[in-house]
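Components:
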Amino acid sequence: MTTLVDSDELARCIRRLAAHIVDEVQRRGGAELPFALVGVRRGGVPVAQRLAEEIESAEGLEVPVGTVEIALYRDDAATALPDPKIGPSQIPFDVRGRDVVLVDDVLQTGRTVRAAMDCLLDYGRPKRVWLAVLFDRGGRELPIAPDFVGRVVEVSASARLEVVLDDAGYPSIATLEEKS
Amino acid sequence: MSAPRPFRHRHLLDISGLDPRDIVQVLDTAEVFFEVSRRPVRKVPTLRGKTVINLFYEASTRTRTSFELAGKRLSADVVNISTATSSVKKGETLLDTVRTLEAMRPDVVVVRHPASGAPHFIADRLSCSIVNAGDGLHAHPTQALLDAFIVRRRLGTLSGLTVTICGDVKHSRVARSNAELFQAFGSKVRFVGPRTLLPPNAESLGVEVFDRLAPALEGANVVMVLRIQQERLEGAHLPSLREYSRTFGINERTLAAAPPEAIVMHPGPMNRGVEIDAKVADGPRSVVLDQVEAGVAVRMAILYQLAGEAGTAPAA
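Structure:
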């Protein structure tokens, strides 16, 4: 297992992502309400938290943060085992008419994002849904493209790319394990 | 805290078949579905293409409706069969009925039956998952699980509590399942009611038995009031409803013996003015309507755990 992105670089990634999101969503989003971040359980949740803090400290902008649980929306839900780590979605704001940025740690097939969009839409009809990911590793199996990417990484389809959290529960480094 | 693990059961037949970790897992999953039930769109696609049959050999409105809503909110196809409208009336045996149903390839069959052990009998003979929705005087596990869900939400724990169950304990599968559940978490269970309505073996279950209300309520965290079934009067188990109400009815005066933070539960339907006074039923300590709301979430959690692939094949 190797360190793919160290903590300094990962912090820079998050800062860049935060600035990019604020620029674009404010310029092109056009909703009257402030935009919101929604982390995809479980890997996207700490990334969304971290982005919200970054946006508040750098831009002085307070953005609401929610989470969506996708286990109930998986396209293989009928054949998959029940997920023992399932937790509740939490959307503590009205999504109707709002720009919502879905946040995940790693984008690969796009199936998780598809499920997350279905879940989000059950809370109402947002003005626009955006997608921000810390890492895009390619390998899409659905027609889904991110709006904001921290970093594009080229790894084999079977490699295990993991965002490791620090003791406070924030994204710290990214590791890569090639499966033989 | 131990790591989550897959649910290890194919059926939900009684509380005694579950260990505390299984129960915590059902309750944790139910929190997820409790949230689903409060969304603008109260439905998730999880069990799309799955079939749930509610097979009710006993009258029931709230339990059947609760299971029906639970299945529908998970996008399963739900069919209700009750004895009044089925060929059971024409003399079909239980085994014939369930074999016929099995040919329709359900994923889960929810059974309520007046005979204790009927769900076990079916579980032994069918390949789908069976949920016991109440069998005779034996068990009503989903009621105990939803009661536990509310107690955990309100009091923050299932351990170290004193749970007082009042009324016709002898004929109550709700009392039996709740006693098993709370004892499994190290809580104390008390039964109180007229001697004729208390089970003769209560002490051997590790339950404290009282024939007066006030001492039974002293120090109680949870007061579970059971329905007095009018038909028991004919069997001379009770002198009169009026006398029952005076001696064992839960009203503001009798409830004063319990600590002010104790919660009052009732599995429904309530006989207002008999076992529970309207002021208590509608008062701030009553969680009766919370129990109904929790019922749907807990049953969704159970269907989710059983109707997934784990229910029909062992985990890989």
